[in-house]
Design a protein that fits this description.
16 strands, globular, 301 residues, D-amino Acid Aminotransferase, Chain A, domain 1, Rossmann fold, alpha+beta
Length: 301
């Protein structure tokens, strides 16, 4: 097969590993900087122009769309779909996952465990907003934040009010969530491909930091999931319409709760921690599913 990886930087670990894995299986791999693509949008013969030349047909694409480039990146993915090319994750599913509020609403509708969350536009009833999630301490998140940026733990009611007022003063959209104290600064990353969790790791934040992101100095170790955790990760992935996802869970007193569903999960941390060839499993998934050409998204919301 000919497989195109949509990535801004060919030197990134995830991009490099996917390219190496595909070539090891005998496929023709190419890395396409999607920001350098432009599209001929026509009903007769839709095409993508890359570096001044029309792209030849490929069999499948693997989108690695940066969060800050979601709008244009999704336009490129949609154009490939219009051309009848299979995408590892559909444009609609990626779009759902990038909207944190929409993601939580979809998961809630599906009955998947979540931390109690509130969202409001105004600041007239901050006290009520905080009480909705059970009172301080609370976690306050910017909707547009990534990799732990824009996430604040407010340990007192007054601190929470101050942070909410500051964010709303900047006209920023925020979520207020209950703080899962029993998680003790750890979360679980489940890497889901198709209908199976292929690798999982526990991430621990640095001392004094409740965020467990590896980009922020957190540490990781291999972990064995419970059947409920495994089921929750797969259900969350399917609820979003994703085929490949990184699902972040917390262990709470009332079972696993989903914090985030990531449509472009990084490979470095999970592969080095678990020693699982995740990139190879992604290529094998494409081998099995790309020939069918089934790009249709059946999620209704």
């Amino acid at each position: 097969m000919k497989i195109s990886i949509l990535s801004q930087d060919k030197s990134l670990y995830s991009t490099t590993r996917l390219k190496e894995a595909g070539e090891s299986f005998g496929h023709q791999m190419e890395v396409i900087n999607y920001l350098r693509c432009h599209m001929n949008i026509t009903s007769h013969k839709p095409t993508i122009i890359y570096q001044g030349e029309p792209m030849g047909n490929c069999d499948a694409i693997i989108p690695r769309i940066g969060a800050s480039r979601t709008f244009y990146g999704l336009a490129v993915v949609r154009q490939f779909e219009v051309m009848g090319i299979f995408s590892a994750n559909s444009s609609q599913a990626i779009s759902r996952s990038r909207d944190k509020l929409r993601c939580l609403q979809i998961l809630a509708r599906t009955g998947i465990g979540l931390p109690v969350t509130s969202f409001a536009h105004g600041t007239e009833d901050i006290d009520g907003l905080i009480q909705t999630v059970g009172g301080a301490p609370v976690v306050i998140k910017l909707l547009e934040g990534t990799q732990g940026i824009g996430v604040v733990l407010a340990e007192t009611h007054q601190a929470a009010k101050s942070v909410i007022e500051a964010f709303r003063g900047l006209d920023a959209n925020i979520l207020v969530q209950e703080f899962i104290k029993e998680a003790q600064g750890t979360d679980i990353r489940c890497f889901v491909i198709g209908d199976k969790v292929v690798a999982s790791m526990k991430r621990q934040g640095t001392p004094g930091d409740f965020r467990s992101n590896l980009h922020r100095g957190g540490k990781a170790e291999k972990i064995k999931l419970t059947p409920e955790e495994r089921s929750t990760a797969v259900r969350a992935t399917k609820a979003m319409g994703l085929r490949i996802a990184g699902v972040d869970l917390l262990r709470s007193h009332h079972g696993p709760v989903v914090m985030e569903v990531n449509s472009s999960p990084g490979l470095e941390g999970i592969e080095k921690t678990t020693e699982v060839d995740v990139a190879g499993k992604i290529i094998q998934f494409l081998e099995k599913n790309a020939p069918s050409g089934k790009n249709r998204d059946r999620i209704q919301y």
